[in-house]
Specification:
The protein is α/β, with parallel strands linked by helices. It contains 14 helices and 12 strands. The strands form 3 sheets. It has a 6-stranded parallel beta sheet with strand order 9-8-7-10-11-12, sandwiched between helices. It is globular, with a radius of gyration of 22 Å. The two termini are 28 Å apart.
């Protein structure tokens, strides 16, 4: 990606953790502005648009090196909605084992479900972020039971620990967040992300005497981005200017500090919460209660957590009720936090790397 995103951040964190475990790791990217220095792993840049000619260059490189395997981090949008990258197993020598890690269910624009067949048959192992997604695949490819794995993504953000933290976070609250409860949104600030729903409910609860501060933490450039300008106009029109703050991009340490200063997270995933959501993982490792969306792909571990409150994506009325009830039960927020803490083991990097090593070891 030419701009920061959760998947690219994950790739960096994953490579770093693998290297720390003693593996020889190379990240191959098309982004010419990628940082080549200061990493514990190598970075190889092969510029291109992920079309067929670019893939031929990538396969030539993979064949020229002494790799044991290559692991494609696949989300269609990351490759310009092209499917050519999925042809690499057919172009790389058999000694280099192909692995596919699915970051979403989205398919390339052209070719439709043909790509699903390739995803499920061309790779030695396929790693799914969702058990429901994997089970659906196994219904059609029953002979691949030993080659499909369910493994949610750990958090890209590490929880900051140091002695002055409590005092620091209280300063954040005192200066920026007043005495009202603090909700946090962490993710891209784009259309079709459910952000308008959050603004709507902020206004509704304010009118009903349940005022809170909402922090939107992400890159925010209204001087360049029309949607960001429209968002500011909407906030002004709703009369909630004092209730909304934008951090713009901040480093990982500050992300952690803001999460520790907040009282709850608001995560309006349009396709429902699941183990693939990096912002949800960040909320979990910070033991932060959350209000988020539910669908058939939401894992049972999340559904059963008493510290997570759900509503249907896009349903403003339902969101308002869930959040209103959440505010009515403020005395339970500490209980909710302890319930969320019980999910920490799911998002452990050590746990993730151990399972990954098992997958790689049986290739």
């Amino acid at each position: 990606m030419s701009y920061p995103c959760g998947a690219s951040h994950f790739a960096s964190m994953y490579a770093k953790n693998l290297a720390q475990k003693g593996h020889d790791v190379t990240v191959l990217t098309s982004n010419a502005s990628s940082d080549l220095k200061g990493n514990s792993f190598k970075v190889k840049i092969i510029p291109g648009n992920w079309g067929l000619s670019h893939i031929l260059k990538v396969s030539k490189y993979l064949n020229s090196e002494n790799f044991d395997l290559f692991d494609i981090q696949f989300e269609a949008y990351m490759y310009g909605a092209k499917g050519s990258v999925l042809l690499l197993p057919y172009l790389v020598k058999n000694k280099v084992k192909p692995i596919l890690t699915m970051h979403s269910e989205a398919l390339p624009k052209l070719g439709g479900r043909l790509w699903r067949f390739i995803q499920y048959t061309a790779f030695n192992k396929v790693v799914f972020y969702s058990k429901a997604f994997m089970d659906n695949a196994l219904n059609r490819f029953t002979n691949r039971k030993n080659d499909f794995f369910h493994l949610g993504f750990p958090s890209n953000i590490t929880k900051v620990q140091y002695s002055g933290l409590q005092k620091f976070t209280q300063k954040i609250k005192a200066k920026e967040l007043s005495e009202n409860p603090v909700g946090i949104y962490f993710g891209h600030i784009n259309s079709n992300r459910g952000i308008e729903d959050l603004l709507f409910v902020t206004k509704k609860l304010k009118d009903n005497g349940k005022e809170f501060k909402l922090i939107l933490m992400s890159q925010f450039t209204p001087e360049k981005n029309q949607y960001h300008r429209d968002l500011l106009s909407e906030i002004d029109g709703l009369g909630i200017k004092d209730n909304i703050s934008f951090t713009d991009r901040v480093d990982d340490e500050l992300v952690s500090l803001f999460f520790q200063a907040a009282d709850f997270a608001l995560l309006p995933f349009t396709d429902g919460a699941s183990f693939k959501n990096g912002s949800l993982a960040t909320a979990v490792i910070h033991n932060l209660p959350m209000i988020t969306t539910l669908n058939e792909k939401t894992e049972v571990e999340l559904k059963d957590c008493n510290g997570i409150k759900f509503y249907s994506s896009g349903n403003k009325t339902e969101l308002e009720k869930v959040l209103s009830d959440f505010f009515t039960n403020k005395d339970q927020w500490g209980v909710y936090a302890r319930e969320v803490e019980k999910l920490n083991h799911i998002y452990s990097w050590n746990n993730y790397l151990e399972k990954r090593s098992e997958i790689y070891g049986v290739c």
